[in-house]
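Exercise 7. Given the encoded structure of a 313-residue chain, write a plausible sequence.
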């Protein structure tokens, strides 16, 4: 992976839209570190001897692999999600059936080539590109799968839990994201607070399961904080993932593009004030320029929608 980091970064950009620079220096570097970390655990997973009543009793625990792990990953961080799920499962001695998102399968397929090159025995790591409703559903319901790990929407997570229970009561781990707010008080370093708040809301074009899309600011610093945000957001550059100056790329798909624009229109229609909203016309690409609403009321849909909705608003 380190040897092929530039190629992997370019594949990630072609697939997902994120800048090559960020994919290489962030996502791929993090993925390599993750795999190295879990490689260190491979010879450290041991059982314990438990105090009992010798010599008639001897009690101990033994850690054993769960077995076949079905792993279903999303499109927003394809290579990182691959590493985060592959690493611990391999360290524990499990075999894996990986289903990448149908929108971003390229890095998972390239990594399969590297797996073969590295000498993994056949059948240890398997990749099944498919639609979620086909491949993902099959993994969740298959009686030969001992555990399923999923990162994605709450709606799909519920379906996976149901299928796991109805099949063989397989173990399930779900990472379904959320929508936690940032809180800014007058005692804060406002320059730092604005930088981190914007990063929380705009990183990866807002397509992030930890996206901080709500910011609550103390009234005494409200106007000052907005002015600082405006000066910083002007430096944010949407563009081609292969351009070295791009801060972020386009959204993943037409569906996501339409969804985000619908929320912008709903916010304006409900009376929210678009303090920052300067959409640029582009010939191609699902680009949505950042939007910062102020004078927002708690009953507005753009505030109440608490699921992980992936939008730079």
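Solution.
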């Amino acid at each position: 992976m380190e040897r092929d980091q530039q190629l992997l970064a370019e594949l990630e950009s072609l697939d997902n839209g994120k800048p090559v620079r960020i994919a290489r220096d962030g996502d791929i570097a993090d993925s390599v570190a993750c795999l190295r970390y879990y490689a260190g655990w491979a010879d450290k997973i041991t059982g314990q001897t438990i105090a009992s009543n010798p010599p008639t009793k001897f009690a101990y625990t033994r850690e054993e692999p769960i077995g076949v792990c079905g792993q279903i990953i999303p499109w927003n961080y394809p290579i990182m999600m691959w590493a985060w799920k592959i690493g611990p499962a391999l360290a524990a001695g499990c075999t894996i059936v990986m289903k990448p998102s149908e929108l971003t399968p390229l890095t998972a397929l390239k990594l399969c080539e590297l797996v073969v090159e590295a000498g993994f025995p056949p059948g240890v790591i398997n990749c099944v590109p498919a639609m979620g409703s086909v491949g993902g559903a099959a993994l969740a319901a298959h009686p030969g799968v001992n555990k399923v790990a999923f990162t994605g929407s709450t709606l799909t997570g519920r379906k996976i839990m149901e299928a796991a229970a109805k099949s063989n009561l397989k173990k399930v781990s779900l990472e379904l994201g959320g929508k936690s707010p940032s809180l800014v008080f007058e005692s804060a370093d406002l320059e730092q607070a604005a930088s981190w708040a914007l990063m929380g809301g705009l990183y990866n074009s807002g397509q992030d399961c930890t996206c901080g899309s709500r910011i609550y600011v103390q009234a005494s610093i409200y106007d000052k904080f907005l002015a600082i945000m405006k000066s910083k957001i002007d430096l944010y550059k949407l563009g081609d993932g292969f351009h070295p100056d791009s801060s972020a790329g386009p959204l993943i798909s037409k569906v996501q593009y339409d969804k985000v624009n619908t929320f912008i229109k709903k916010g304006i229609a409900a009376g929210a004030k678009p303090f920052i909203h300067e959409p640029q016309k582009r010939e191609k690409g699902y680009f949505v320029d950042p939007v910062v609403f102020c004078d927002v009321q708690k009953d507005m849909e753009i505030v109440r929608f608490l699921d992980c909705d992936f939008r730079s608003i």
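Remark. The longest strand covers residues 68-72. Students should compare their own answers with the one above.
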